[in-house]
Design brief:
Elements lengths: L14 H11 L5 E2 L11 H12 L12 H14 L5 E6 L1 H13 L5 E6 L4 H8 L3 E6 L8 H7 L4 E7 L11 H14 L2 E5 L22 E5 L12 E6 H12 L7 H10 L5 H18 L13 E2 L8 H10 L2 E2 L1 E2 L10 E4 L4 H13 L6
Parallel strand pairs: 1-10, 3-4, 3-5, 5-6, 6-7
Antiparallel strand pairs: 2-8, 7-8, 9-12, 11-12
Helix pairs in contact: 2-9, 4-5, 4-8, 10-12
The structure holds pyridoxal-5'-phosphate (PLP).
């Protein structure tokens, strides 16, 4: 290792996902069901707003907390949903920026943070970078949020419970009862509750539920990356108790500085865009892929996001993914998101034609005898 590289960088690695992309780079016309972003484009009105902002000279730093009209629009929307006395909001540099600031603000070295396994890849990496201790609670085979398992993982060092519903990589959504139970447990034990709600708009069965409805100290992270296909624009937001938000802003000031200003004007316009058509379309894609695979793969039906997490028909998800890639199908091995190597992730944020080709390949591999 190069002598200049700091120890904190050695506690996690990114080799798993790189291996998949290296294998994929060799493919000519792959069926790509690996992508973690919508297949529709940024709504035109949002593009126009950002272009107008750039042409109108709104290119400088914005206030650290974000442009006032966006912050105000979000504040109103949040206050309607959660009429808490002490809830403030700021604009972060993507949801990832909000996650990083949340962890830097609340997690001391040695503090334990509980989240479900499978998990979004950034969680353990960010925690280790900050000296936190990831405590991944196994949620196989149904990936439900079980308050008893969370309670059993709590120790005197537990600082935070990190929730993600709808979840990446499983697409599973927590029920109101499950969220309420965990929200009340966190309140009772005085443990910070951080809710990553980046997929909140992609919710197919019923109404989206947040633990913030049951615990007024919940810190919520959301953003425009997935809902409006703005992953490259880097606009997210965080809301929670005002002192915690103020402390995050102190760190944002000396790190990210602000979210890109033209993108924030785009996000303001995005709040007026009706996403109904896209969500309906993704629900249809969810049904199409689930119906085509559920008779030959073990899959927990996703209630949200745009992922499914089927069990591989052979003893290794990673091996199965290598075999799928040999057949021209790009998917992600489950062990990137988990301590287990038994599943794989499909993204159904793809064209119907790609999904049909992907489903055909997966059906042909379902017996495990590839
Ligand atoms: C669960 C989860 N949280 C956060 C993010 C990061 O989102 P952003 O692009 O807004 O940083 C992702 C992106 O894949 C995600 O899946």
């Amino acid at each position: 290792m190069h002598p200049w590289i700091a120890d904190r960088t050695t506690t996690f690695d990114s080799s798993g996902i790189r291996k998949v992309f290296d294998l994929a780079a060799k493919l000519k016309d792959p069926v790509n069901l690996s992508i973690g972003q919508p297949d529709f484009d940024v709504p035109e009105a949002v593009q126009d707003a950002a272009i107008e902002a750039i042409r109108g000279g709104k290119n400088a730093y914005s206030p650290t907390q974000g442009i006032a009209p966006l912050r105000e629009a979000l504040r109103q929307e949040i206050a309607e949903k959660y009429p808490h006395e002490d809830r403030d909001v700021f604009i972060s540099s993507g949801t990832s920026g909000g996650l990083m600031l949340s962890i830097l603000t609340m997690v001391n070295p040695g503090d334990e943070v509980i989240f479900l396994d499978p998990f979004f890849v950034m969680y353990p990496a960010l925690l280790k970078m900050c000296g936190g201790v990831p405590v991944a609670v196994d949620s196989y085979p149904d990936f439900r949020l079980d308050v008893n398992k969370i309670a059993a993982a709590i120790t005197p060092r537990t600082k935070m419970i990190l929730l993600n519903s709808p979840a990446n990589p499983t697409g599973v959504t927590a029920s109101e009862a499950e969220l309420k139970a965990v929200a009340e447990l966190a309140a009772e034990k005085n443990i910070a509750l951080l809710s990553d709600e980046i997929y909140s708009r992609f919710f197919y069965d019923g109404e989206f539920a947040s633990p913030a409805s049951y615990n007024d100290q919940t810190i919520v992270i959301d953003g425009f990356s997935k809902s409006h296909a703005m992953t490259g624009w880097r606009v997210g937001y965080v809301h929670g108790p005002s002192e915690i938000i103020r402390t995050m802003l102190k760190i944002q000031q000396y790190t990210f500085v602000c979210a890109p200003q033209p993108a924030q004007w785009g996000a303001l316009r995005a709040m007026e865009v009706n996403l109904g058509g896209h969500i309906e379309d993704y629900k249809r894609k969810r049904d199409m892929v689930f119906d085509a695979l559920s008779d030959c793969y073990e899959i927990a039906k996703p209630g949200g996001a745009f992922y499914m997490f089927p069990k591989a028909p052979i003893d290794s998800g990673a091996k199965f993914v290598e075999q799928a890639i040999e057949r021209g199908l790009l998917i992600i091995p489950g062990n990137i998101f988990s301590s287990r190597d038994s599943h794989f992730r499909i993204s159904f944020a793809a064209s119907d034609e790609q999904l049909k080709r992907g489903v055909d390949i997966l059906r042909s591999m379902a017996g495990g005898s590839v």
